[in-house]
Design brief:
mainly alpha
Length: about 230
């Protein structure tokens, strides 16, 4: 059950990541067309696409990626490729929410900027680079990775909860009219803090006493001469 639930979460992450990439390409097409023809309808369509589809795909892709890191031994800061994806995702969400969305609103009113397609193209490139990171897994471990500590994979219940949270947030967005990832944000922060505390306890408990499973058993200790 645990493996099946984790596989479903991986599947959702892949699907929404592909959706994020494809919607970013569609957004870039609309922006370039609007700037070429000065057709405000293109910018209005781009705004709808960003607000109604791309934002949901981006939020869900980021959430599932964060949860897959937090619920498995990969973690956030143990491997350079995971840390790279983490930093890029945070940057993308910030730029998309606080910069691009505001500029799309202004463009729909006739005040467009040449930086909008540039930013969207960078978003596409960043998603493609993250895909490469997921496949190649380059650069090895970070200096903060404790080889003595390996947190276990989360339970099936945790993975099922991670699958249900995006659906709940989507229902809330339909009611409020705004694609805000309230529950996803709370879940990621709460679970990550809990996971970090568990890792800290294991690191302290296992330091100098064998593996992350805890101190070695007396029977396994080195025996002196008889």
């Amino acid at each position: 059950m645990q493996k099946s639930a984790r596989t479903l979460l991986v599947w959702l992450h892949v699907v929404t990541s592909v959706g994020w990439l494809s919607q970013a390409v569609a957004l870039l097409t609309l922006l370039l067309y609007g700037m070429k023809t000065s057709d405000l309808n293109a910018f209005k369509m781009a705004r709808v696409l960003d607000h109604q589809v791309l934002a949901i795909m981006a939020n869900t892709s980021a959430f599932t990626g964060f949860m897959l890191s937090a619920t498995t031994p990969w973690g956030y800061f143990r491997h350079w490729w995971v840390l790279g994806k983490f930093v890029i995702t945070i940057s993308q969400l910030y730029i998309g929410i606080f910069i691009l969305s505001g500029n799309l609103h202004q463009a729909a009113e006739g005040h467009h900027s040449a930086w909008m397609p540039v930013g969207t193209a960078l978003m596409i490139g960043a998603i493609a680079f993250q895909t490469w990171l997921s496949v190649a897994k380059p650069w090895g471990r970070t200096p903060w990775a404790d080889p003595k500590v390996k947190l276990p994979t989360a339970s099936a219940t945790t993975f099922l909860l991670a699958l249900a949270i995006p659906a709940a947030d989507f229902a809330i967005s339909l009611y409020t009219g705004w694609p805000m990832p309230f529950l996803m944000l709370i879940t990621v922060i709460g679970y990550s803090v809990r996971r970090a505390a568990t890792g800290s306890r294991r690191s302290s408990g296992g330091s100098g006493r064998g593996t992350s499973a805890g101190p070695v058993r007396p029977a396994a200790a080195a025996r002196g001469p008889r």
